[in-house]
Design goal:
mainly alpha
């Protein structure tokens, strides 16, 4: 029992480190969501108006719609490559709890796709006329929200492993479940930009993150086992 207790954290760490190394060998996995995020933000001033007062009114919506779509962009590759090269099957047969190993993979996905969006969010907000007072709440909400999206997306990615049109199905599965994240995240950002307390939406995002971190790895593990049968 003590050996299992010792080896399980190491196994999760090895999965996390492997995914990080592979991602940094293919920089497009890290850069594409951020570039897409910045492109979405740059289109609104061109389509609407460069007037700062008008852009400031929709800044929260732009940031969160861009973050949501950018997160979806990176989800399909979460398990697909590991299924193609047999790694996912080896993880299933490793003797370690599959849910813990998939938690490590999802955490790596969040570090690679969510953290760059957190860093890019203030720059998008500045381009939309936001002030610096809201950046703390903005970055906190994006960090919490992208974490929720990664864990929800992991379930969707596992469910669509056996589908030829996985990207379409993945979007249809994840988008309805991501609506609370969009609502609470945009609300927290908007309140912060207006100088009002934003603790309520942030606590709701934190509660959603705890819920998804607790349940999503087990659901993903069950879906992966079904897909590999």
């Amino acid at each position: 029992m003590s050996g299992l207790t010792t080896s399980l954290p190491r196994a999760a760490w090895l999965v996390l480190a492997r995914d990080m190394r592979l991602a940094f060998r293919r920089w497009e996995q890290v850069t594409h969501p951020v570039v897409f995020f910045l492109m979405i933000a740059s289109l609104f001033p061109l389509a609407l108006s460069p007037e700062p007062s008008q852009l400031r009114n929709i800044a929260a919506c732009v940031v969160w719609v861009g973050a949501l779509l950018s997160s979806l962009l990176a989800l399909e590759s979460l398990y697909r490559a590991d299924q193609d090269d047999g790694t996912l099957e080896q993880l299933t047969l490793s003797g370690q709890p599959l849910a813990v190993l998939l938690f490590a993979k999802t955490l790596a996905h969040w570090l690679l796709s969510g953290i760059p969006l957190v860093v890019a969010a203030p720059f998008v907000a500045i381009s939309m006329g936001a002030t610096g007072e809201a950046f703390g709440v903005l970055m906190t909400s994006v960090a919490l929200g992208t974490g929720v999206l990664s864990f929800i997306g992991s379930v969707g990615a596992a469910l669509t492993l056996g589908s030829r049109r996985g990207s379409v199905l993945l979007s249809l599965l994840v988008l309805p479940l991501a609506l609370p994240v969009l609502i609470f995240g945009a609300r927290a950002t908007d309140l912060a930009m207006r100088g009002e307390p934003a603790a309520g939406p942030l606590w709701l995002l934190a509660a959603l993150l705890i819920l998804t971190v607790t349940l999503a790895p087990w659901a993903s593990a069950a879906a992966v086992r079904i897909s590999l049968e």
